Structures are given as C-alpha cells and as structure tokens.
Description:
- The complex is a heterodimer.
- In chain A, strand 4 and strand 5 form a beta hairpin.
- Chain A contains no helices and 11 strands.
- The chains are: A mainly beta, B mainly beta.
- At the A-B interface, strand 5 and strand 10 of A face strand 4, strand 5 and strand 10 of B.
Amino acid sequence: DGGITQSPKYLFRKEGQNVTLSCEQNLNHDAMYWYRQDPGQGLRLIYYSQIVNDFQKGDIAEGYSVSREKKESFPLTVTSAQKNPTAFYLCASSRREGTDTQYFGPGTRLTVL
Amino acid sequence: GENVEQHPSTLSVQEGDSAVIKCTYSDSASNYFPWYKQELGKRPQLIIDIRSNVGEKKDQRIAVTLNKTAKHFSLHITETQPEDSAVYFCAARRAAGNKLTFGGGTRVLVKP
C-alpha cells in the first residue's frame, strides 16, 4: 500500500467552495475507489472506477464528482452541493482480476470552516 | 445490495486473552471476505482475508472462519497484545466486480 499517495494530508475549505483531493498509485492497478469515513464510523463508498474513462457511483455519490483520465490518477472533487463534507477521505486501488486485494492510501482529512 | 453487519462495536480484553469479532452478510453471491485493521488516524491495512471455497484460514495469532450457509464470518485474535488495539473492519464482495461493502467496525482495546 506504499504505492498509493493522497494529497494533501489536511485540507480546510470554506463553505461554498469546491475542493479537489488527489489520489495517485504506481501499482499498475486498474480499479480505484474513494471512501468517506466519519468519526467512529465505517467506510462508505463514494465512487469507484474499474478502468480508465469509466466510473460508477457508490452509496453516497451526491455532492461529489470524479474523473479517471489516467490509470494512475483518480481525483475526487467535493462540491459545494455536499452538505456535510467534513470527514476523512480514503482512496484505494486494486487489480481487477486475480489477487484483487484493495490497498488504501494514507487519507485526506477535510474540514469545512 | 450487500449489507454487512459487524458485532460488537467495542471490545475490551485483557492482554493475553482472545478476541472474537463477528460479521454477517446478506448477499449469498459474496465470495471474498477481507479484514482490515485501522490504527488511529492511519489507513486501513489488510490483515487477513478468506474466499468462499475455504472454511478457515490462519496467520500466526489471527484466524478467520467462514460459514457460507449461515452467511457469517468471524475474526479470532489469540494471545492479544497492546499493539492489537485498533479498529477492525470486515468486508464482503460479490463474485462480479470489486466493490467492497464494509461493516461498521469494532474498536478493540487490549488492556495490559
């Protein structure tokens, strides 16, 4: 999982602003995922992508958008439409076939001021 | 869709004792069940996983059992140590696609 990086580690946003969280992997994984984690809670899937130029909504996609223009990159934009964006955001990646263990990045903690 | 329930939500054990966490899943087509450990402020890390063609898997002090008929699987940690204190998540995945559904997590505290 050392091959997955997220930036920034901490992010502060004013209400009404869009912000973009970065996720990069050098593991040559096809599939990438974004999860949201609230304090004391589990992981909820926001979006996932199994191949370049294609992605699907997860369980809580409203107020978020993604793109997958490159295999290594899967940025997440938190839009002003997301009512309660303060959370810990985790990116993950996996192979699509064979040993498809999901590996997580170090996370980005987003706080809305 | 898949629903994964995890119990208990918190677990306190004495160092050296065993800890058991149980998860149930709803989708009978699920065939892959990983367990992740997350220390405070860190990323979840895979500690063990099991596939539906296996009933039990062990790795040193950690073991996972799977009962496909009852649709539940469990994590067993023996001889617990203070460094086992963390939040543990179970997850399940269907045969098609790589979308994991996570349980709500169990906070384990090992008291020295």
